[in-house]
Each structure stands twice: as C-alpha cells, then as structure tokens.
Amino acid sequence: MATASKSAKRRYEIVENKGNSEDVDDIIEAQVSDNADDSTDEESSEYSGLEDDEEDDSGDEEDESAWEEASDEDEEDDDEEQDMSTNEDSEDDSEDKVAPTAVPIEQVESSTTAEEPAKPVEDEYAYDSSDEEDLRNTVGNIPMNWYDEYPHIGYDLEGKPILKPKRGDEIDNFLRKMENPESWRTVYDPQTGQDVVLSNEDVELIKNVMGSRIPDGSYNPYEPWVDWFTNEVMETPVTGRPEHKRSFIPSRIEAMKVGRMVHAIKMGWMKPRVPKDTSVERHKYYLMWNADDKSEDVRRIENPIPAPKPRLPGHAESYNPPPEYAFSDREIAQWNRLADTPYQRKFPFVPKRFSSLRAVPAYDRFARERFVRCLDLYLCPRAKKMRLTIQPEDLVPQLPKPRDLQPFPTVCSMIFKGHKGLVRTISHDPSGQFLISGSDDQTLKVWEVATGRCFKTFEVKGTVRCVSWCPNSAIALVAAAVDNNVYLINPGVGDRLVQAKTDEILKEMPAQTDYLIPQRVRAVLTWNEPDKEQWASGFRVILTHFKAVKHVAWHSKGDYFSSVMPEGDNRSVLIHQLSRRRSQLPFSKSKGLVQCTLFHPLRPYLFVATQRHVRVYNLLKQELTKKLITGAKWISSLAVHPGGDNVLVGTHDRRLCWFDLDLSTKPYQALRHHGQGIRAVAFHKRYPLFASGSDDCSAIVSHGMVYNDLLKNPTIVPLKKLRGHDKFDDFGVFDVLFHPTQPWLFTSGADGTIRLYT
Amino acid sequence: MGPMKKKYEAGEATKYITRAQALKKLQLNLKDFRRLCILKGVYPREPNNRKKAQKGKLDKKTLYYVKDIRFLSHEPLIWKFRDFKVFMRKMKTAMEKGDKETVARLKENKPSMKLDHLVKERYPTFMDALNDLDDCLTLCFFYSTLPRDTKVPANLISLCRRLTVEFLHYVIAAKALRKVFISVKGIYYQVEIKGQPVTMLINHQRGFKPTSASDVDYRIMTNFVDFYTSMLGFINFRLYHSINLQYPPKLPGITVKEDATDEDAVEEYNELVAALNSSLVTNVPQAEEEIQIDEFPSAEGAEKLEEAKREAEAIERLKSLFKGLKFFISREVPRESVVFVIRSCDGEVSWDPSIFAGATYDETDESITHQIVDRPSVDKQYLSRYYIQPQWLFDCINFRRLLPVEDYFIGANLPPHISPFVTERLGDYIPPERQMLLALQRGETLPAEQEEEEEEEEDESEDDSSDEEEEEGKIEKKEPTKSQVVKEKKGMKVMRGRVEMPDVKGMEEEDKEHYKFRELMIRNKDKRLYRSMMKNRRNREREAKRLENKRKQHEKEEKSLKKSTSSGKALTAKWSIQPLSATSDTQTKKMKMM
Fold it and tell me: Which residue ranges have biased composition labelled Basic residues (chain B) (predicted)?
C-alpha cells in the first residue's frame, strides 16, 4: 500500500515536469508500467512477505530508471542509483525528483559502491559463508598479539601456516592509499590480518550508530499507524443487549432541579454571572482625606511613634564630590581592610569622582539598602528618645567672674628663703606681723611679714611637725611639735610687755595641791620645765609625750591646746590646759588613726579627723555630736570656717570637701581641682576666701561665701591657681596660711621656701 | 492586708508581649503575622526596663505592646488570610486532580484584599501620610524599574510605574521641586508638599543586577509595596484634587477610552503620559494667586520675617527658573529625570523621538537655547545654543538661579556637585562651593563671578595691575602722614592722653583658667555627658581640619599642575569656546542681571 502511494506521488511529479521533458511517450510508457506494477503489488502485498517487497523494490527501480532516462540524459549507472534510493526514505526520493540537480552528487557516492559485491540476501546458499569465515580466521577469538612475531596467522586444513598478507612499508601503504579510491572505507581486520572494504550498509550502520539513531537503516520509525481498535461503529456489535429503559426517560430529580432554577430565574432570584469589571482597578482611589489636618475618629495603634526619616546624603555621596571628600589611596586601603566588618566603614561606598553623569554605574547595594530599610521599619523596636539640643557649654555652671570677687591673692610678692629642708608648717602671730615656720632642718624661724627678714632661729632636736602660734594676743607663745615633745616657745618678737608678761606667767608651775595626775595621763605625758640654757633660748615649757606628736592646735581663747599622736591608739589625742598645766585624755577608745584635731572657734566642740571620717565631739556634754563622712580614703588636713558651721577637709586622694554642718554629714561640695593629693587647707578669718595646697606645687584660692541666711547655701568659686613652688622629692606645697587681716596667702613648700601671695 | 502581690503581674511586665506569645494569641503563622504587621504598621517597642518587661528573663526578645496585638486581633484582614489559605488548598487539590473547570472557577473568585481602611487608619490626617511618604516613594520608584522576570508580580510593577508617573506629574504641575542631588546611589529629589519636605531617591537606570536571596527578600518588600501602592494612590488622588487636576491624569487633546479593548492604544497613551512632557487636563481653569506675606510688626522677629521673605522670593524664582528656555536632550542623557527637573521649573523640553514618545520639537529647531549633552564631543553643533552637561540643571536648582554656563560646556571639567541636604553644625567643615551657596542664600552677590572678573582683568593687563598695586601702596603711605600732620598741629601744649591697652593676652588666659574652674564645677551627673559631647566636638573639629588640609593640598597640587602645563594651552581652550559665547553675549548678560 505504501508503494502505491509512493508511485502516485511520483506520477504527480512527473506530470508536473511534463513541460521540461521531451519524450512524452516514454513517460506514458513508464506510467503504464507503473500502473501494472501497482496492481500486482496490491494483490501480492497482503499475502506475501519479504520477497514480495523486493519485487516491489525492483519494480520501483524500473520506474525510477524510466523517469531518470526521461528527464536526465547521460545516466549510466542506473542500478546503483536505485540501490541508493531504496535504502533511503521515500521523502529523499521525492527530493531527488523535485531537484534533479542534486543527482550528480549522489552519483559520486553511488559510484563508490560500484565494485561492491551483490547483496548476500539475494542467494543465501550460493556459497557457504560459515566456511569462508573459518578459512579466514582459523585461530578463534584470541588476542592477536600472540601472532605478532610470526609471519603467519593460524593454519589451514592441511596444517600449513596461513601466511599474513604482505603489508609493505609506510611509503607503499601511502601510495596505495592515494591510488585506491576505496581507501577511506578500507579497514584492517586484526583477526585475519586482511584489509576489508566496508560495504555501503556497514557505513550506513556506523553513521546511524554515531548519530544515535536506530542502527538498522531499513527500520522506519514513522510507519503508518494501524488502527486495530477503531472508534467506528462496527456493523455487528460485540453484545446485542438492548438499552435500558431509564436511559430513555429523563431524570426526575434533574427535572425538579431545573424547575427550581427556572422558578428562581422567573422570580429574579437567580441572575447570570456578571463579568468582572476590570476598569474598577483604575478607579479604585477616592478622596480619602477631606481636610489636611483634621482627623476623624479612627482606631489607631497605641501611642504611635513615626519611623525616623532616612538619612539625607552628604557631600561625599555626590557623583562628583569636592576633591577633599574623594578617598585618597590610604583611605581606600583602610576601606578595603574593613571588608570583614563593613559596619565600621565610614561610608558603604567609596566616594569617588566621576567625570560625567553617564560614567556613573548602578549602585549595586541599592536593593539591599531598600530591603534593610524595610526590615528596620517593621522589625526594629521603637522608643521615644529625648534628643539633647543643648551645647556642652550649657552644662558648665555659670560662676561669677573672679574679677568681681576681688580681693584675693594673685601674685607672688615675696619669697622667704633660709630654710635648708622642707618647710612643713607655718603659723602667724595674732596680729599678722610675724610668721613662724618649722622645717626638716631642725629649726624654727621667725620672720617679719612686711620685710621678709628672719628675726630669730630656734634650734630643736628633730624635725618640726607642727607649729602653732597662740591666738591669745595677750601672751606671746608658740607651740611646736618636735618628735615626742611639744615645746612652748616665747618667740621674743613683738611687744616687749607681752613677752615679759608671758615669761612671768610661765616662770612658775602653778601649785598642784589637790590635784592628782591620773595614772592614764601620767603614763602618756610629763610637763617639764626647761633648763636654764633652754630658757635663755626661749623655751618655756616642754611636754614630753610617749609617742611622736604630729599635730598641735590651740583653742581660740589661747588657754587650751591639743596634741595628736597618731600612733597612740586610744591615747592619741591629748588636751592640755596651759594655765593649770593639766592634761587629759578625752577618749577611751580608738576610732582609727587620728590625723589632726581642731577646736571649734566659738563653741566647745572638738573636731577629730581620723583617716576616713571627721568626728565632732561636744566637750561639755562629752559626747559625739556628728560624724562627717568624706568618702575619701585618707584625710590630710582640716579647717573650720570662722563662723564655725562649715568645715573644709583636704584629702590625699585629691578631693577637697566642703561640709555644711547644718545641712548634712555628707559633703555639700567636693572639688577636685588639684592634680595630686592635698596637703593643707585654710580659711581666711575675714574675707570669704579659702585655699588649698597640694603636692602638684600649686595652691588654689577659692571664694567661699557663707551667708547668714540659713536658706542660702554657700557659694564656692575657684578663683586662682597660684604656682611657684618647686617639686622636691615628690612633695610640693606643705602648708597654706592666710594673713589674719589682709587677703594674703602664705605657702610653705618642699623646696625650703615660704611664699607670700598678695 | 490583702493577698500578696506576685512579681510581674502589674506594671511594665503586663504591657508587653513577646512575638511568640503574640503568634499564639493571634493563631497566625510567622509569615502571616509579618505581613499583618507590615500592613498595619505595627512594630516592636523598646521597653523602659527590659528586665521587667521580659518578666526577669535576660535574653533579648522582640516585644510588642499587648494593646497593639489586641488591636491586630480585630483586623478583618486576618480572615482574608484564612480565606486565602483555604483557596490555595482548594486550588492545589483541583490542580492535582486536573479539574480545569474548578481551577478556572476558583481563579475567578480568588479572594482579594482591600487596604483602603488601613491607609485611613494609619494616617488619620493627610499630613501624617505626607510625613511618611519618603520610604513609600523610594520603594515604589525602585519597584517600577524592576524587570518583569523577577519574583515580583508584573501587575504590581506596572502599577508602581503608573503611580510614580502620576506623582511626578503632580510635582511638575504644582512646581513643588525644591532640591536635587545626583549621588552615586541615584538621584535625590526633595519636593515640598503643603510645607512638608518629601525626599525621594530614584536609582540610576542602569539595568537590573539580580541579588541573592539571602541579601534581599523580595516577598517582604512586596508586602510593603502592596500597602504603599494603595497609599500612594490615595495621596495622588488627594494631591490632584488639591490643584484641580483630573485623576487619573488625562492629556489634553487625546481621548482614549479607559475600558477600550485595544491594548496597544492604551499602552501608547500610557507612554505619552509617562513622557511627562505635556500638562494635564484641569477640572477648573486655575486662577493664580500671589501670596503675600502679611507683615506683623514684631521687634525681634523682623530679621526672621526678612529671611522668610527672601526664602519665598527664592522659591518663586525657582518655580520659573527655566521659563523661556528651550531644551533639547541628547539620547545618552537620562531622559526622565532631566525632563522632570526641567519641566518642574517651567522649561520647555524635547528629545529625539526615537528614544521615547512625546517629543514636541526636533533637534533642528533653531529656537532651542540649551542642548543637554553628556558625551565628550558633538559632531554638528548649532551656534545658537549652548551645549551643556546635565549637572548644570541640577546645580541651577540648588543655587536657585541660572549659573554661568561656561563651567558646564561639553568636555569641561565639571565643578564639584555638592549636597543641598547638609545642615552644618558648629565647627563642621564647609566646602568652598557650599560657602558660596550659603552666601547666596544670605542675599550676597556671587563672589566667584567677581573673582573671575578680577582674574580676567589681571590676565588682560598684568602691567596695569602692577601699576595699580603701586598706586595702592602710595595711598597707604599717604594716610599715615596725614594723621601725623594733624597730631603736630594739635599737640602744641596738651598731649593727648594715651589709651592704655588692656592686657588682652592676660585677660584671655584668665578667662581660660576661669573656664577650666567652671568645668571642674560641673555637676557629677552631667560630667559624663559633657565629656562625651566635648569629645564629639573635638572629633568633628579634627575631621573638619583634615578635610580643610586635604582641600588645601589638592589646590596646591592643582596650581603646580597648571603651572607645569603651559599657560598657552589654557588660552587656546578659552578661544575654543569663544565663538559660542560671543554669539550669545547678550544672553549671558541678561542671566547675570536676573
């Protein structure tokens, strides 16, 4: 059947080509023969097998040849041509016919197959093919390299070796190859040692395998489909059963449903589906807010916090930034170094200058930055934060100008030189005319303030820890703490009458008739009279203690004075009465290392400074009234305001604490002016001034006004830093002292000088 | 005494809820919760005391207000989410069964969300909405430039495009553009709407670079854009309404039916709208009003009033900055941004019709005054127009006046482009270009121009200048002699009292010491704050100094470079542009007058 259709096609083509062809008769002949072939084909194909197919092919050949002769002249090897065409698809055939110019090319190919022997299919038993195989390969399927060294391969029936054909040398081979047109399809067979020329089928097979097609060229994958199970109604059905009745009767339930629907449609309940209006999409917006600012009542989230606006760009982000913003090589290197920690970079991009707008590339982090912003918007916790709009200057308290708070000492106007060691302590006489100083060079020197002259020098045996001039102007007396002793010295300066009177008072010990020195006091201290030599040099009374005395302080009346022995435990503080030459130990328990003591200027109170605290004792009631907590580690010095309600405490840890006794037991103000520990503090008797001296070689004068009004807190203004002393052995200023009447400050230093600032 | 109070049952602890608890309470999964939070604008809160708010737990948790979560639970959108979940389930079953009819029916009835009520709820007043417009615009502009093949739905992209174009049309019509800035990230535009500054960033249109999923999650951003599109739509409607424009925008003279089936026509029409080159149809013919600032006599506010007046004048000037100028855009220039900038300052503009629809005149038009070019050279130049680089437009808008075109000619080395958004604090570094701008704002004349003129004069006649200098020197010499004469005449008997100069140095030192003492007197609780503030200030000062030095160094290098290259070159360069400026000398003069 297939061939029939093929032939029909051909016929059509031939008819088309009529105009070209000259021998019309020939064509007609061919047609006739073709037709005859067809008829036989139709009959035979149904019953015959392969052989008929071959016949059919041969018929085809004839047909082809006829046409070939008609259309193209000079065709010689018709048979070969037909061989090829049989192997090819019918489509190829038709192509050939439509474009006869393609034929010569094919011809070349076909000519190559000319020498090929006829197909073995033609006559299977013409010769014994199996024998032939054996003849060639007598050794079987063995590795052929076993015969590499021999001139033969295997043996024939007679036992004679079958010689390998001569291979010749390379040049011969090459020449043979050049001469032989079949060389491209000649293959060496190692099994027999022969050269084998591949047949056309073999080549086709190889081509098919390489093109991953079905190897068998004759197999047609697109054969017409034979419809075995047709959908056409057969004339005689498989079953003769008549249809059931219910297939003819309409469903009652469906009828009811339809009835209901019809009713619904009639009543207008059911409407056809309206197709969706797409234009709504474009007009879905309307006027949502009628006014700009007025809001209608809508529920909102609690206490909404608007998101902060994105940061606006700076100059560096410009595509053409000012040259100072573009990164230098160093900055680029730094930028690259932070690749692992990109958040530390100053910018997420490298500021760079582009010569023109078109040169600017896309910003590759754009999407990422938008995404991060979105994350921030919905994921970042929000809180309202107060933003400071103040300048740092606003935090600095406004203080009155020092110029408005004059007078206060500003310039160093006098230097008292003479001591050879550290000047640990200084004191002035009640009038302020004289000054006494005690030094490590084991001397006490009396100076006149106005001239700066040293009036007198007292030699003592030991370092002078503390000197204190008796505040009573009726007597001229200085208490000096030297090692274990406290000397009461008549300095021998000032009013002669007063000097004489003092000597007179101290000449004789008052009678101790009904007084028995308590055992406790006797163990600690003895009142000694100086010998004649000492009397002549000015010593009037000597109090010998059992430990080194560090501090001496007079009561404002000038009769009582206290001495402090830090190592004396519970017996470290002693209060002496000069007029009766009696002493007492006020404390029975030790509260720590006592640093210094002071008398309240007006009331019978005693301030005792231990390392950490200052305790205020009422001497009359004999009880503790207050304990001032400084918060410092080591108190060095103490001063009481002449009013008596304010106390200044200097500490070795650089703090200067101002206590207001009426206010609290904690410092009213703590100042840290000094770079190093404070050694001494002092109040001025008349002016609202106080001073502190420190190891950093400076003294600071401050304004400290105390008001009578209880509601008004004292004002404290640091005024001036006074420098001048030199550093010696890590010590700077040892003592500070105000002149009793003038706004002058004396400082004594480790460099052996005393300075007067006015 | 009542029953003992338990810890964390009152106060701060009851105000907050963790995210896991919130999920449980709302019965949503994390994805839906996230979406809901994004749409409703609910965000975590930072508690005053985290330990109390977390009921004593120390690890950091995301905390929400309990009231916010309760508010979320009443949201009808949650039901929409559930509907959608059901819909997806049904779809899946139908798809797997291959039930095409059901799939089609389901698709027809796909549940959709309306977010109108959310817009109203989040922004009860229009001003609130404007206040939050920055992010909305930037993201919508970004989405409008995305390619269709990203994971973002295509109709969302086209919606974004439409809405952003509408917004740009509003800005053009209202002349609301105030500041522009070309940065490496994109172009910033600041627009003033109802007195509120709105800043948007539009990325450079350079093609889309795909990002990895770990970098950018487009699903989250799409949730935002869903909300932003409806918000921007309503804002656009309101804005168009406020200046009597028809919404959706209509071009005059062209009528296209909205529901027309011809998609090509609609597309073409949309492109014409997107060209931004023609004004839109108004509802009512507009009557322009001149707003006069009423003068209220106030003693201390006089200066402020003056400043406000100057500002208003400058803005008026900015609104019609390019009036009467005719621009033509070359094809390599970013069309949309340039057209937007020109049109919002009242200029006329056109381009090569092959780039985009909507061109109004040709390159050959003789009345074109400026051609915007961004290439090193142009083959055929017209004498009647300036060929300038696009930065000129942007700088003009920031300076609020027409700048001299000479610096911006083709191939010229452009002057730096500085940010108009910077507000300097005390001690910050201000680049010289910015200083010039600030001086202009204060109402001073252009110092650069004067300098240039001076330089020119110097160049022209070096000999003259030396003469002048000599003359100046003479005058200076003369002055003291005059005063001497006067002294001699008067100082016969009574010597004039000498003014004792105060010891300035000493005073300064004193003040310094005083300030140091004052610093010491800072209260303890302020001390740390003061120190950190001073540290910041010092850092800023250091940075400013660094930049200043860098600039100086740069200028020095420039100078040495200039010296090394012969001065003849500079002259020839000037000559090359001479013909252009010569033809339009009068124009430049006019501009200077303006």
Answer: 530-539
